[in-house]
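Quick one - inputs below.
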Amino acid sequence: NAGVTQTPKFQVLKTGQSMTLQCAQDMNHNSMYWYRQDPGMGLRLIYYSASEGTTDKGEVPNGYNVSRLNKREFSLRLESAAPSQTSVYFCASRETGGWTEAFFGQGTRLTVV
Amino acid sequence: TQLLEQSPQFLSIQEGENLTVYCNSSSVFSSLQWYRQEPGEGPVLLVTVVTGGEVKKLKRLTFQFGDARKDSSLHITAAQPGDTGLYLCAGGVKGGGSNYKLTFGKGTLLTVNP
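Output:
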């Protein structure tokens, strides 16, 4: 029962470096989400994907790109990391609909120095 | 932009006390959810409310959805140290087709002291 799996769990980047955060779910969900969580800010939506091959911007998409290559996987890419992107990143998935449960991964703690 | 305001942001109480946290918006939501998050973990769903005026109970937790579907509250009776955590409300916003965004409030960090 893996649910939502995120890799890596921890990462330190230098300013300007790039990296991809990976997310995979095994619940056959259509919708997937990427959030960032900062102290006092709750969860802010970066990008989401309603189905394979579609992506939409959330509240804070600048500096990020995403790929939904198949139903299971939704990756988040930082092309040129900045200290402002230091955060905890969460991936989530849920079945299509307005009131279905969202299942979260354990998060990736990213530090940009 | 949908905005969910949660209050209070921080709450520290003694074991056995009652408390209420609030989630308010100027917009109507098709549903509201409450999640609880523990340190180092992702949020976990507590409840979903979909009907205006709805009240749901989960042991010592009581959830209410406002009649106008713009606000919700979470009441905990006789709080215990195990209730400590970050409580987040989330609203479902329908986009195009069957696409739904799930947006979160900033959360209420609850500490229950023994």
